[in-house]
Amino acid sequence: MKKLENEKELVKKALKVGSVYAEKRGAAQFEPTDSAADRMLYIYRLLVHDKLIQPLPEEQVSQKSIQHKLAIWASKLDTP
User: Fold this and answer.
1) 58: which of 7, 47, 49, 51 lies 20 to 30 Å off by Cα?
2) Is 50 a member of any domain?
3) What pTM does this model have?
4) What residues make up the domain containing 37?
5) For 15-56, what is each residue's pLDDT tens digit?
């Protein structure tokens, strides 16, 4: 898995956009005390469920692979 050039910024963007998506969809209500790892996992699972991203094989699901997958998803979004 090759790290993207601006992966850190893309992960932040994915968290922001993914949180808004989950809340508008009525699937989640994130609290300020929720950890970024928990948010990422939930957003990843929601996007997989909605067939917006391809799922990773279950044995490959890790914090790092989820971050990478969400960064790729964010890089394909039109919003800044």
Assistant:
1) 7
2) yes
3) 0.88
4) 7-75
5) 999 999 999 998 888 888 999 999 999 999 999 999 999 999
